[in-house]
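Weekly structure sync, notes
Attendees: PL, DS, HV (note-taker this week)

Item 1: SHPS1 phosphatase
DS walked through the input record. Source organism listed as Eubucco bourcierii. Sequence as pasted into the shared doc:
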Amino acid sequence: AQKKWSFRLQQPQEQLWVTLGQMLTLTCTTSGDAPTGPVKWLKGWGSENKTIYDQTRPSPRVTRVVNGSNTDFSIHIRDVQPEDPGTYYCVKFRRSVGRGIEIFQHGKGTVVSLHDTTMVPDMVTAAVVPFLLVLLLFGLLVVLCMYHRKRRREAGSQRLSRACCAESPSTTSSEVLDAETSHLPSQPSSKEDTTIHYADLQPLPTAPWHGRSPGTTGSEYASIRVAAK
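Item 1 (cont.): predicted structure, written out as tokens:
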């Protein structure tokens, strides 16, 4: 009669993502009693499988997580290479009389995939370029707003200057004449001649007249302004 074993093998990881150069950890635990035989890790299944870990043939890249454990057969794969992606199986073997070593139980397999590192710069570029464009447009808007504000301020100053000039009339000739004659002494006047301004004429000092013919006498004159009635 064939003995019934209470052995159970658990391989909980269904899929893992790793990057080149990273350390990969594959988990496998067992419980209960089992027939004599090793526990190995295989990559792939069928005739093309490859032994990744064997207790009898250790590898420098593949090591046990817990050395010497009879229940924890998890392993580390250091420095992941481009050829490492694939499906890994934790397998319990048993030795049988006449048939040698055969598979007793195995896990469901863990699919290992590589991150596409070339996508990372593309993703960063796709996120940064729109941000830079928005920032550039914002800067242009700020410059344009400042330029228009400056132009409005200059235009307002020019309008204010023209308005001040329009409110301040230029000095008329009559005001100049009044200013020139304001220092002259006033003469008594009646109601009939209140609009006549008199000038007290004084003789001019004797001075040489160049270019004047001998015997020519000098002349003096005065102007009188009469307001219109």
